[in-house]
Structure formats: structure tokens, C-alpha cells
Write a structure and sequence with these properties.
By secondary structure, the chain is an alpha/beta fold. The chain is 31% helix and 24% strand. It has 17 helices and 27 strands. Bound molecules: adenosine monophosphate (AMP) and 2,3-dihydroxy-benzoic acid (DBH).
């Protein structure tokens, strides 16, 4: 069977880089032909007795992690999991997250990185879209029965052959600890092939799946570890959910592993939990989203924990303004690093030796000299335009490079607008380039609400609202918020002649559709019409303006 003929009707699984660019990335040493599985083998040889991961009452050395990943890979093969198959992974911050994903890397099966907050609707979407063969989850987490959610999904989706559960496995599931067999020799997957599917926060509808290759992702991880000065004696604390691209790779857990360092997995990001771990494990670096930075800055003022080991605090995922960046640096007596990244690829960091003005006033500069950035007129309707705005002006950011995807997984139609014809990813972010090449993020062109780093696709939530029989139309917009940066506000037009649903009822209705709690609108406002643009489209700009006006004092 010819490989090239197996294109899914929705589009290819992976859009490779053009031949000349791929050759350039190899020649530059960005792509080194290494896989994640073979990397772990090397690390276990180089740092056998270093502690790789601490969490959930365990401390595993590199050797132990390597052995567990080998045994689980053999167990997965015995179960019948095959190279190229997709496996949805929904695990909290526990060491097994690492043994599971490295086992899958070794098998050549592709993890699909769900977050613990995802519920039925999202899991069903990822499983269906990827035609997943298995789902690996935990019995319970945060008062939610993940095992029941996964087994009921598997009953509904014939492609889902296996449900593997960390902890108590219910009827219809296999205990993850039983996925264990004597290690077997497995062929190393293609380093330029897909390693896993990451999720986009989604700017239209449900999250898109992002195919990342071993070569491209390892490049970003290796460079991130270097930029963040990780050493074998560094201790990285993952406070955010590890499956997210930021704590996974910027430099995150994978960057820490790459450096032979230790990762500490925090079960929750609250200051009490995290400060205790920082003191106990002598944590040197961690990463947060802005609302968490604000909470930690406050808590630091009254803690009696010894936080003196902490050298670097990263802030990213959403815009961290100048005041917050200054406040958190002073409160924790650390070097602040701004991180502006995306699961699609491009990651920007302020460098650890950047002047204070840059650290406070920018969101960093790209990892690589081969990251190509174009800042273009955001109002230009010709999708093909990549003409730059004058230097220093605000424009929409387009990017391509050695670790930025050229297309989403099986999404040919969406790819046609999400990428320019010459392969630039339209980030949807509005930025300004500062003279030294650093970027200042000034807003967003895409329909996405950034709720303290948790991305909400407006269209997805609007569809949930419109499923209600009393709702004629819905528009979700961002409500500026001092704590989270943005909260969501749903404007709703009721159907004539039926009883108008209350705000509370609509919030409950969205929640009952089985979606992550952060997507439930923070506010619901019932109106009889939406403002419209010249061509009659709902004007979100005007809706936003109305919200802002309503929140001004004296109006
Ligand atoms: P995603 O594509 O879902 O991975 O989300 C990435 C998006 O998060 C970016 O395109 C930005 O909109 C936003 N983002 C991430 N980091 C920052 C940051 N430091 N400042 C402002 N926005 C950010
Ligand atoms: O928000 C993000 O997606 C993000 C933020 C910082 C990211 O993917 C990253 C760093 O790698």
C-alpha cells in the first residue's frame, strides 16, 4: 500500500516542510534525527541516578523512568497498540504522565494531549477527530470520575479499543499498572514523522489537533533548556497541567529532562502547595500564567516558607503587564522571564540577562534565528498578504520556522485560512516589534478569549448556547478583568414567544453539555439584538466596547 494514498478526507495528518527548508534545518543542526525514545535512553546512560521526577509520593531516577517506559511500551505492544495509532492521554501532574508518554513515543503511537479539565465533549472531539485507539486516564481527579467518563466514551466510539486507568480500573478498563511486560526491542520511529498531537486553544470552534514531529519539538525543547540555563542540578517545578505545551516544553518537563535536571510535579498550583514544594525540593525555576503570578506575589508577602532557591519565574500564556512583572519579581526576589508561545510552534522568551526594561515591557524574542516573523496589516482582507507594516507599528503576527507547524491535523479547510500560501502560520496575535527584535503583544485579532491563560474559542461556546431552545443567537466576548486579564461574557438574543432563559439557567445549560468549567460564560447578558458591521456581521468590537463602557465608573 502506498503511503501517499492514505490521505484522510478532512486533510493530511501532517503537512511536511518544503524540501529545501527541511534540508536547511537539518544542515543548521536544528533537526538532528533523534526521537524522544532514543533521547531517554541516552539520558538514562548519562544521568542514571539523578532524580528525573518527583510527584504523587514518588521519586524516580532517570534509570527508573527509562525502565518503566520500556516495560510499559512492551505492555502496550502486547495489548495491540501499533505505531501511528493515536492515544488520548488525560492525566494530572503525576510521574506516570512521563512513563506513559515515553512508552507511547517508543511504540511510535501518538499521544493526544488532553488536559485534566476537559470533559465529555472535548474528549469525544479529540477521540473522534483522531480516531483514537485508546485513552489513558486516571480514576478520579478533582472530584471528577475520569474512568467513568472514558469507559462511557469507549462504549460510544468503536475505534476506542482500550481504556487504561491509573488507579482503580472499572469494568471495561485495564489498570495502567498491569500494562507491564519484559522490555522488547522496538524499531525507532521516523524522527521527521509525527511524535504526538498537541491541542490548540482553538480560535474557531473546538480545539484543533497539532501534529508535532520528534525533530521539530526536540529542537525547541533543547534550545528552551539552553535559553533558560537548565543544568543537571536545576529543579523545575510544573505548577500548571503538564500536558499543556508551556509546562511541557518551554522549557518545561521535557526541557528539564533534556538537561538531566529534576522535575517536581505540583498537584495544584495554589501558593500553599507550591511554596511548600519549592522549600522542600529546592526548586530553581517554575512557570506560571499571569493570574497565578499575581496570587503568588500576594502570598509571598506572608509566607514563612524558604523560597530562596528560586532563581527564575516564567510568566506566559497570556499578557503579563509591566506592573505585574515588576511586582512578582520583587515579591519573590527572582529573575522574571516572559514567555509568549503557542502549541503550533513559535516560542519567544526574554533572555535571563535582558535589561529590566525589556523584561518588563516585552514578551520576549524568538528561540531561533531561523524563526521567520512577519508583522502585517491586520485589516488587509487579502488572505495572501504578507506585506509588513512599518517598523515599530502594530500588526498581525505571521510566522514560519523549524518548529512551527505547516498545517493542523486533518483540517485542510481550516488550514487554507490559518496559513498563508507560503506557509506562514497566522497566530492571530497583534504585536509590535521593538528595536532589539523583542515582541510586545498588544492584543489579539482572533476570536479567542484568554481567561488567565486558558483559551476559550468564542464560536465553540456560542454553539453550546445556541443549542438551548430559548436562544436565537449568542456572541461571546472578552470582559476585561483585573485578575484573570479577561473573563467571558455571553450576549444572548432570546427566541420570541418562548420563555426567556435566565443567565443562571444558561450557565448551567453550557456546563451540562460536559465541557471544561473554564468555558462556562462568567456573565450572560440577554439583549434583543446585536450591533452589526457594515456587511451585517455581528460586531464583536461594538459588543466589547459596550462591556467596557458598562464597567467604566460614572457612566
Ligand atoms: P495556543 O495557540 O492555544 O497554544 O495559544 C497560544 C496563544 O496564547 C498565543 O497565540 C497568544 O494569543 C497567547 N499567549 C501565549 N503567551 C502569551 C504571552 N506571554 N502574552 C500574550 N499572549 C500570550
Ligand atoms: O499559551 C501557550 O500556548 C504557550 C505559552 C507559553 C505555549 O504554548 C508555550 C509557552 O509553549
Amino acid at each position: 500500500m502506498k503511503k501517499g494514498l492514505l490521505v484522510h478526507p478532512d486533510g493530511p495528518d501532517h503537512t511536511p516542510w518544503p524540501t529545501e527548508l527541511a534540508a536547511r534545518y537539518r544542515a543548521a543542526g536544528h533537526w538532528r534525527g533523534q526521537t524522544f525514545g532514543s533521547l531517554l535512553t541516552l539520558l538514562a546512560t548519562a544521568y542514571p541516578d539523578n532524580i528525573a521526577v518527583v510527584g504523587a509520593g514518588n521519586r524516580w531516577t532517570y534509570l527508573e523512568l527509562d525502565e518503566r517506559a520500556h516495560r510499559m511500551a512492551a505492555g502496550l505492544v502486547e495489548l495491540g497498540v501499533r505505531p501511528g495509532e493515536r492515544v488520548v492521554v488525560q492525566l494530572p501532574n503525576v510521574p506516570e504522565f512521563l512513563s506513559v508518554v515515553f512508552a507511547l513515543f517508543r511504540v511510535g503511537a501518538w499521544p493526544v494531549f488532553a488536559l485534566p479539565a476537559h470533559r465529555d465533549t472535548e474528549l469525544r472531539h479529540f477521540s473522534t477527530q483522531s480516531e483514537a485507539a485508546a485513552i489513558i486516564t486516571v480514576d478520579r481527579h478533582d472530584r471528577h470520575d475520569h474512568a467513568a467518563m472514558a469507559t462511557s466514551l469507549a462504549r460510544a466510539l468503536p475505534s476506542l479499543r482500550h481504556v487504561l486507568v491509573l488507579g482503580d480500573a472499572p469494568e471495561g478498563a485495564v489498570a495502567l499498572h498491569d500494562v507491564d511486560a519484559a522490555p522488547v526491542e522496538l524499531p525507532d520511529p521516523d524522527p521527521e514523522g509525527v511524535a504526538f498531537l498537541q491541542l490548540s486553544g482553538g480560535s474557531t470552534g473546538l480545539p484543533k489537533l497539532i501534529p508535532r514531529t520528534h525533530d521539530d519539538y526536540l529542537y525547541s525543547v533543547r534550545e528552551s533548556a539552553r535559553i533558560c540555563a537548565l543544568r543537571p542540578d536545576s529543579v523545575y517545578l510544573a505548577a500548571l497541567p503538564v500536558a499543556h505545551n508551556y509546562p511541557l516544553s518551554s522549557p518545561g518537563v521535557l526541557g528539564a529532562l533534556h538537561a538531566g535536571a529534576t522535575t517536581v510535579l505540583a498537584p495544584s498550583p495554589d501558593a500553599d502547595t507550591v511554596f511548600e514544594l519549592i522549600e522542600r525540593e529546592r526548586v530553581t525555576i517554575t512557570g506560571v500564567v499571569p493570574p497565578l503570578a499575581a496570587a503568588w506575589a500576594q502570598a509571598a508577602a506572608r509566607t514563612n516558607r524558604d523560597l530562596s532557591s528560586l532563581e527564575v519565574l516564567q510568566v506566559g500564556g497570556a499578557k503579563c503587564g509591566r506592573e505585574l512583572a515588576a511586582r512578582i519579581g520583587a515579591a519573590l526576589d527572582v529573575t522574571v522571564q516572559q514567555v509568549f508561545g503557542m502549541a503550533e510552534g513559535l516560542v519567544n522568551y526574554t533572555r535571563l540577562d535582558d535589561p529590566e526594561e525589556i523584561v518588563l515591557g516585552s514578551q520576549g524574542r524568538p528561540i531561533s534565528a531561523d524563526d521567520e516573523l512577519r508583522i502585517v496589516d491586520p485589516t488587509d482582507p487579502s488572505a495572501a498578504s504578507t506585506a509588513e507594516v512599518p517598523a515599530g507599528s502594530v500588526g498581525a503576527l505571521l510566522t514560519r520556522g523549524p518548529y512551527t507547524i505547516r498545517g493542523y491535523y486533518r483540517a485542510a479547510e481550516h488550514n487554507a485560512t490559518a496559513f498563508t500560501p507560503d506557509g506562514f502560520y497566522r497566530t492571530g496575535d497583534l504585536v509590535r516589534r521593538l528595536p532589539g527584535g523583542h515582541l510586545e503583544v498588544v492584543g489579539r485579532a482572533k476570536e479567542q478569549i484568554n481567561r488567565g491563560g486558558e483559551k476559550i474559542a468564542a464560536e465553540e461556546v456560542e454553539n453550546f448556547l445556541m443549542a438551548h431552545p430559548g436562544v436565537l443567537d449568542a456572541a461571546l466576548v472578552a470582559l476585561p478583568d483585573a485578575y484573570l486579564g479577561e473573563r467571558s461574557c455571553a450576549y444572548v438574543i432570546p427566541v420570541d414567544g418562548v420563555e426567556t432563559p435566565t443567565a443562571e439557567e444558561l450557565r448551567r445549560f453550557v456546563k451540562q453539555q460536559g465541557v471544561a468549567a473554564f468555558k462556562v460564560p462568567d456573565r450572560v447578558v440577554v439583549v434583543d439584538r446585536f450591533p452589526v458591521t457594515g456587511v451585517g456581521k455581528t460586531s464583536k468590537r461594538e459588543l466589547r466596547a459596550a462591556l467596557v463602557a458598562a464597567h467604566q465608573p460614572n457612566q
